[in-house]
Amino acid sequence: MTALQTARRALAALGLLCMSTQALAEPITGAQRKALSALEIEFDRHHVTASSETLKVAFDDACKSGYNLACQRGAWVVYGKPNLDAAANLFDPACEDGDPVACQVVGWQLDRNAPQTSDRDRSWRAAALKFRIQCDDGFVPACYEYAWFLYLNKGFKADPRSGVSRWKNACEEGDMPSCTVMGQFYAVGGAGVTKNA
Fold this sequence. Notes:
This protein is mainly α. 64% of the residues lie in helices and 2% in strands. The protein has nine helices and two strands; from the N terminus they run H-H-H-E-E-H-H-H-H-H-H. The chain has helices at residues 3-19, 30-42, 52-64, 84-96, 100-113, 120-136, 140-152, 160-172, 176-188, and strands at 77-78, 81-82. A two-stranded antiparallel sheet has the order 1-2. The longest helix is centred in the N-terminal third of the chain and has 17 residues, at 3-19. The chain is globular, with a radius of gyration of 16 Å.
């Protein structure tokens, strides 16, 4: 593991810990924040790991705080391993009802499965739409996800600077994964970002 990868993991872990205690703008509640932090680790969204016991405690805390889907972790942990397809099936009705955390899970699943579908661009566009709607509604973690679609042209043509702009704005709103991405770009440069120590 390179020094940059080690630093990235450390920053991401610190960001996830800080986010669990941060108050964010509506529509997310404290229970949703707790659930999202646990789900991001469960499904390896930021290359941060935790023991099964630590995750169980985190989901139990989110459940007791009032996020009912966190109470159903057994529905997506199959033979001791998290199954994103099972989680997306469980979370999809809540996403349809406007739950931004549930839409994150559904979007992750659409994104991950896109290369195996007959029309990957359509699947990527569906995932990007979920993230964009939530981002435009003020749910900052979705902005981090949507920025990747813009930056990498996943499913549609976009100017990479649009992705960079989303990350910058999300970082300014306190989204640590977006700040980590911007820090990496400033360290090494990239499309739409000038290297700036």
